[in-house]
Specification:
It contains ten helices and two strands. The chain is mainly alpha-helical and about 230 residues long. Among the domains are: about 1-50; about 85-180. A hairpin with a 5-residue loop joins strand 1 and strand 2 (about 60). Helix 2 packs antiparallel against helix 3 (about 30-45), helix 5 (about 85-100) runs parallel beside helix 7 (about 125-145) and helix 7 (about 125-145) runs antiparallel to helix 8 (about 150-160).
Length: about 230
């Protein structure tokens, strides 16, 4: 994986764009991933990554974001409903990050990682969100519908991208809790069910009583014969 894959952007000479990608990836990176991101930044720019700004109280604070409402940051739209150049670039960067996420079988099941990528401004703009949804739908939606993604991830994607078929997805029941039965924690072939359905049986003592009587008669006859002799 090269430095651009780690940063989640396409190769560029724009230092500001590389810095923004570095800071965005750093927010949900582990210690090892942070070191890899620092090396990727150095490789992409030839210099060290920026240090977080420190407030007067000694606490780190993120650098102030650019004014998203200014014409310079939004850019000129070529036509009504079309993305600006900046928004199109944001959509491309997010799509690259999501495709990299899909190569990580563990992190792709963590809904917090998806939210960190998709809900981060300015990627949360409605127009950018629609563009991202259009690009990811052929790849991501079938996986979610087939149960390849965790339930929380699937429901989040359904709400975020308005993929209505994913909103009502429920987690699969645990077979250890409901084994091939009626859904109440007991199987249809459970011995307890068969026992409960059978009426209690009466015990017949007469054969034993008759046996004792016959035995006593035989003993009495034997003792009587011995006494007579």
């Amino acid at each position: 994986m090269n430095c651009w894959d780690l940063l989640g952007i396409e190769p560029t000479g724009d230092t500001d764009q590389i810095r923004q990608a570095y800071e965005r990836q750093l927010k949900f990176a582990s210690d090892d991933e942070a070191r890899d991101l620092e090396l990727a930044f150095r490789e992409a720019t030839g210099g060290p990554p920026p240090k977080p700004a420190v407030s007067t109280a000694g606490e780190t604070s993120p650098a102030a974001p650019p004014d998203s409402g200014s014409p310079e940051s939004l850019g000129q739209r070529t036509e009504a409903g079309a993305l600006s150049a900046e928004e199109a670039q944001i959509a491309r960067e997010v799509v690259i990050q999501i495709r990299a996420l899909m190569n990580d079988t563990d992190r792709q099941q963590d809904v917090s990682v998806w939210k960190a990528i998709l809900c981060e401004p300015p990627a949360d703009r409605a127009a950018v969100r629609r563009e991202i949804a259009d690009q990811l739908e052929p790849q991501i939606r079938p996986l979610a519908e087939n149960g390849a993604l965790a339930g929380p991830v699937t429901r989040f994607l359904g709400d975020w991208f308005e993929w209505f078929s994913l909103k009502d997805v429920q987690p699969e029941p645990d077979p250890r809790t409901y084994p091939e039965g009626d859904g109440a924690g007991r199987g249809m072939g459970d011995p307890e069910d068969d026992t409960a359905e059978q009426p209690p049986q009466m015990v017949n003592f007469w054969p034993a009583v008759i046996g004792w009587i016959i035995g006593l008669v035989i003993l009495a006859t034997l003792f009587g014969g011995m006494s007579g002799s």
